[in-house]
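Message: Study each token:
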Amino acid sequence: QVFGCMQKEGLQVTVLSTCPVADYKTQESTLTLPSPFLKALKTKEFKEQVCCPLLEQPNIVRDLPAAVLSYCQVWQIPAVLYQCYTDVIKLDTVTIEAFKPLLSSKILKSLVKDVSESTKILKKLLTTSETHNNIYI
């Protein structure tokens, strides 16, 4: 429904998502992986460089992030999904910090005023959201 209200020409989609590190499939032990870490998945039309390694098979993406990426692939919309694998259940500053390299990406760079202030702003957002038990960014 969201995409139905948007002009598809010139559109580029970036999806940020988190999931448990236990969902990450690898031959090595997940205990040795530095958590949190980012992996990317992109549509064929997305031509920019991604800010982290691509998600390897047999890993899968589920739910709303998968639906958005599938929609973009079908309608030939450039899109990238950044999946953060984390070992915490509740969103925290360490997990959000994993997304920090994305602030220098071409698409997000124009949205950021001062990267040096980002950690302070994120901590304030998380402190505020703890009373509501949710975070909306």
Summary: Residues 118-130 form the longest helix (13 residues). The first strand starts at residue 13 and ends at 20. Helices lie at 63-74, 93-97, 106-109, 118-130.
